[in-house]
Amino acid sequence: MAQYRINFVTTPFKAKSVKTIHNLAFRVHSVSLWLIGCVLVFSGCIEPWEGPPHFLHIEDITFVPEVNQGEATSRIEEVWVYSETDVLGAFPLPADIPLSPSELGESTTLTLTAGIRANAISSTRKPYPFYDAVDLPLALEFGGKDTLEMAVGYTDGTEVVIAEDFETANRFEPSVTSTAEIVRTQSEQLVLNGTSSGLIVLDEVNQVLISSTNEQQYNLHSNGPVWLELDYACTQPFWVGLYVKDAVNALRIPILLLNSTEGERNKIYLDLDPIVRTTPDATHYEITLDAYYDGSADSTTVIVDNFKLLRYP
Fold it and tell me: What is this structure's pTM?
């Protein structure tokens, strides 16, 4: 269930801090009104407005899962904004969203969705299909300003499978050709969430990891999107993929190579739809992790946690 709180700035404050700033800008720069109106939206450059816009400020978007939906980790990078008739644009967080009272009316309702970077690629930013949308009624005036504290959860009907969080077990098993393995670590310097995470150490002796979840037999077929969420930190690249099994064959498919984060924590949202849609005969799937020692240091590490599979039943 989506949650939000909106803080309305009083009219005297708006008149003093917003209108004065914009009026000064208009006197100094003859084209600044056009620049405010010309925001990045799908329809291109908006026509100049009759006065300074009404700004909606969103500092960030918090993810609040329900019980049994895993850790509250997220990487929400932007907010997508829709009017009742149009797409107003995607705005990086923190965002100051300009709204025209003459274009939208003095009373309007916006729909806001949380945007992510699909497959860890900056050019594939999109609204995350499993996060709630927020409908926000607003009273607009030229020079006005509102601040929204926005929180989202997973949409109703989302099936969340905690594939592995390493708190009580380790479902990943190395293949017979692996010389490295994934182990549970409880080191405070390494754990990403909770009390445990998965750790891979690679070196001259332990050079190859080829692993997958062991007989979990995930059903990923869905009436909608299918995604994998994962938290990680690494000092060298590693692969995430799927092991696809049907009645006759088994196929190992590396999907995404994740580059070194230099040990810093990161999160990805991996779109599994292309694989699932092209393997309609699959009876089940397993998650795979592969890594090959790159020699960048005497030993390199990959830390993983919070594997979640999301779909609509």
Answer: 0.82
